[in-house]
Amino acid sequence: MSNLNRTQNSVRQFSLFCPNQLGQLHELLNRLATQGTHVLGLSCMELTEGAFLRMVVNYPELLPNVLTQSQIGWTERVVLAVGLRDALGLNDLTRALLRAEVGIHYLYPLMIRPEGLCTLAVCVDQPDMAATALQEKGLRLFSQADLAR
Predict the structure, then answer these.
(1) What is the pLDDT at residue 4?
(2) CA 116 to CA 97: how far, in whole Å?
């Protein structure tokens, strides 16, 4: 399922399959780093033949070229980058989405702390509706530009 309806509050996420070969992820990260692209969030699910990765990077416009050159298939969708002040913020996030009747597909932490906030990549079935509900609850949403700094 692709979700490329980008809003000002959305972040581009790439999903890809990484073959089960020693050093494959390291090689990909090195290729990205040579172009000034760094992974800001990563989720990895082990499969028999390799791993399924979800990735948020600082400069997503450069990633498709690197993946194509590396012969790695990928898809793209938007996620929301939600800043939480503390662990209780997760309850606020889920409550706001429940009240708005927005389904959560998955979420994972980002490795950066913009504005000192714990930040999650959140994939939902209705990004615009979710963004409104989260902002009304007082949660901070970060744009792709906020993360690239």
Answers:
(1) 47
(2) 23
* Radius of gyration of the chain measured on its C-alpha atoms: 15
Record the tokens describing residue 7, joined without a space.
């809003």
In the prediction, which pLDDT does 136 show?
A: 96
- What pLDDT is recorded for position 6? 54
Q: Around Cβ 149, how many Cβ atoms within 10 Å?
A: 8
What is the number of residues in the chain? 149
Q: What is the dihedral of CA 108, 113, 118, 121, to 10 degrees?
A: -30
Cβ contacts of residue 119 below 8 Å, gap of 6+?
A: 41, 81, 82, 83, 84, 109, 110, 112, 113, 142
Say if residues 93 and 124 touch (Cβ distance below 8 Å).
no
What's the pTM value of the predicted model, to 2 decimals? 0.89
Q: How far apart are the first and last CA of the chain?
A: 29
How much is the average pLDDT of 74-101? Answer: 95
The distance from CA 25 to its chain's CA centroid, rounded to whole angstroms, is: 17
